[in-house]
Design a protein that fits this description.
The protein has 146 residues and is an all-beta fold. It is 0% helix and 55% strand.
Amino acid sequence: MALNDGASGIDFTQFFVTSDLPAPQPVADASAKVTGGGSIAGAAHTGMVVQRKGADATVSGQWQFVNRETGDIVHSTSITSLLVIGNTATFSGTCRTAAAPLDPCTFRVTAHDNGDGQSGTPDTIRVDGVGFTGAAGDLEGNVDIH
Protein backbone atom coordinates (compact mmCIF):
# COMPACT_ATOMS: atom_id res chain seq x y z
CA MET A 1 0.00 0.00 0.00
CA ALA A 2 1.39 3.42 -0.89
CA LEU A 3 0.21 6.77 0.46
CA ASN A 4 1.12 10.23 -0.78
CA ASP A 5 -0.50 13.21 0.88
CA GLY A 6 0.28 15.36 -2.15
CA ALA A 7 1.19 18.46 -0.13
CA SER A 8 4.48 17.41 1.44
CA GLY A 9 5.69 15.20 -1.35
CA ILE A 10 6.39 12.41 1.12
CA ASP A 11 5.51 8.89 0.09
CA PHE A 12 4.75 6.23 2.63
CA THR A 13 4.92 2.61 1.51
CA GLN A 14 3.84 -0.31 3.67
CA PHE A 15 4.07 -3.91 2.53
CA PHE A 16 1.64 -6.42 3.96
CA VAL A 17 2.35 -10.12 4.03
CA THR A 18 -0.51 -12.54 3.95
CA SER A 19 -0.52 -15.56 6.20
CA ASP A 20 -1.38 -19.10 5.23
CA LEU A 21 -2.81 -19.72 8.73
CA PRO A 22 -6.59 -20.25 8.74
CA ALA A 23 -7.05 -18.21 11.96
CA PRO A 24 -5.06 -16.12 14.42
CA GLN A 25 -2.79 -18.27 16.58
CA PRO A 26 -2.73 -17.86 20.38
CA VAL A 27 0.44 -16.77 22.12
CA ALA A 28 2.14 -19.21 24.50
CA ASP A 29 1.83 -18.51 28.24
CA ALA A 30 5.04 -17.21 29.87
CA SER A 31 4.18 -18.79 33.23
CA ALA A 32 2.67 -22.24 33.11
CA LYS A 33 2.13 -25.39 35.13
CA VAL A 34 0.83 -28.80 34.13
CA THR A 35 0.00 -31.49 36.68
CA GLY A 36 -1.80 -34.80 36.73
CA GLY A 37 -1.67 -38.30 35.47
CA GLY A 38 -3.46 -41.56 35.03
CA SER A 39 -3.79 -44.49 32.66
CA ILE A 40 -3.30 -43.91 28.93
CA ALA A 41 -5.75 -45.99 26.88
CA GLY A 42 -5.30 -48.85 29.37
CA ALA A 43 -1.78 -49.53 28.07
CA ALA A 44 0.42 -47.19 30.10
CA HIS A 45 0.55 -44.92 33.14
CA THR A 46 1.98 -41.42 33.48
CA GLY A 47 2.31 -38.69 36.08
CA MET A 48 3.68 -35.15 35.89
CA VAL A 49 4.34 -31.91 37.70
CA VAL A 50 6.04 -29.49 35.29
CA GLN A 51 6.22 -25.71 35.60
CA ARG A 52 7.84 -22.47 34.52
CA LYS A 53 7.35 -19.50 36.84
CA GLY A 54 8.01 -16.74 34.29
CA ALA A 55 9.13 -15.91 30.77
CA ASP A 56 12.83 -16.01 31.69
CA ALA A 57 12.56 -18.82 34.26
CA THR A 58 13.84 -22.33 33.71
CA VAL A 59 11.46 -25.24 33.45
CA SER A 60 11.37 -27.57 36.45
CA GLY A 61 9.49 -30.63 37.57
CA GLN A 62 9.24 -34.38 37.22
CA TRP A 63 7.63 -36.80 34.80
CA GLN A 64 7.20 -40.56 35.03
CA PHE A 65 5.92 -43.10 32.52
CA VAL A 66 5.28 -46.85 32.62
CA ASN A 67 4.37 -48.75 29.45
CA ARG A 68 2.71 -51.96 30.67
CA GLU A 69 2.82 -53.56 27.22
CA THR A 70 6.60 -53.21 26.74
CA GLY A 71 7.71 -53.06 30.37
CA ASP A 72 9.40 -49.66 29.88
CA ILE A 73 9.72 -47.67 33.13
CA VAL A 74 10.86 -44.10 32.44
CA HIS A 75 11.70 -41.14 34.69
CA SER A 76 12.72 -37.63 33.66
CA THR A 77 16.24 -36.46 34.51
CA SER A 78 15.68 -32.94 33.19
CA ILE A 79 12.80 -31.08 31.61
CA THR A 80 14.12 -28.61 29.06
CA SER A 81 11.01 -27.10 27.47
CA LEU A 82 7.39 -26.33 28.31
CA LEU A 83 4.90 -24.74 25.93
CA VAL A 84 1.31 -24.06 26.96
CA ILE A 85 -1.21 -22.69 24.49
CA GLY A 86 -4.84 -22.75 25.55
CA ASN A 87 -5.72 -26.23 26.82
CA THR A 88 -2.61 -27.91 25.36
CA ALA A 89 0.73 -28.38 27.12
CA THR A 90 3.84 -29.81 25.48
CA PHE A 91 7.01 -30.49 27.39
CA SER A 92 10.19 -32.40 26.65
CA GLY A 93 13.54 -33.34 28.10
CA THR A 94 15.93 -36.13 28.93
CA CYS A 95 15.20 -39.30 30.86
CA ARG A 96 16.45 -42.66 32.04
CA THR A 97 14.83 -46.08 31.86
CA ALA A 98 14.88 -48.81 34.48
CA ALA A 99 16.21 -51.29 31.91
CA ALA A 100 19.18 -49.10 30.93
CA PRO A 101 19.68 -46.47 33.67
CA LEU A 102 23.06 -45.33 32.31
CA ASP A 103 21.81 -44.81 28.74
CA PRO A 104 20.04 -41.45 28.43
CA CYS A 105 16.76 -41.24 26.56
CA THR A 106 14.65 -38.30 25.38
CA PHE A 107 10.92 -37.67 25.59
CA ARG A 108 8.15 -35.36 24.43
CA VAL A 109 4.70 -35.24 26.06
CA THR A 110 1.64 -33.45 24.67
CA ALA A 111 -1.38 -33.25 26.98
CA HIS A 112 -4.83 -31.80 26.27
CA ASP A 113 -6.81 -30.61 29.31
CA ASN A 114 -10.44 -31.01 28.25
CA GLY A 115 -11.85 -30.10 31.66
CA ASP A 116 -12.46 -32.08 34.82
CA GLY A 117 -14.94 -34.46 33.23
CA GLN A 118 -17.66 -31.80 32.93
CA SER A 119 -17.40 -31.64 29.14
CA GLY A 120 -17.77 -35.40 28.72
CA THR A 121 -14.56 -35.33 26.68
CA PRO A 122 -11.62 -37.07 28.38
CA ASP A 123 -8.20 -35.48 28.60
CA THR A 124 -5.79 -36.93 26.05
CA ILE A 125 -2.05 -37.46 26.13
CA ARG A 126 0.69 -38.47 23.74
CA VAL A 127 4.12 -39.68 24.88
CA ASP A 128 6.90 -39.99 22.30
CA GLY A 129 10.44 -41.02 23.07
CA VAL A 130 13.82 -42.20 21.93
CA GLY A 131 15.04 -45.14 24.00
CA PHE A 132 11.58 -46.42 24.97
CA THR A 133 8.14 -47.04 23.47
CA GLY A 134 5.58 -44.29 24.05
CA ALA A 135 1.78 -44.37 24.08
CA ALA A 136 -1.14 -42.13 23.15
CA GLY A 137 -4.85 -41.91 23.78
CA ASP A 138 -7.57 -40.95 26.20
CA LEU A 139 -6.43 -40.47 29.80
CA GLU A 140 -8.25 -42.29 32.58
CA GLY A 141 -7.28 -39.66 35.12
CA ASN A 142 -6.86 -35.94 34.90
CA VAL A 143 -4.47 -33.33 33.53
CA ASP A 144 -4.69 -29.76 34.80
CA ILE A 145 -3.07 -26.88 32.98
CA HIS A 146 -2.74 -23.91 35.35
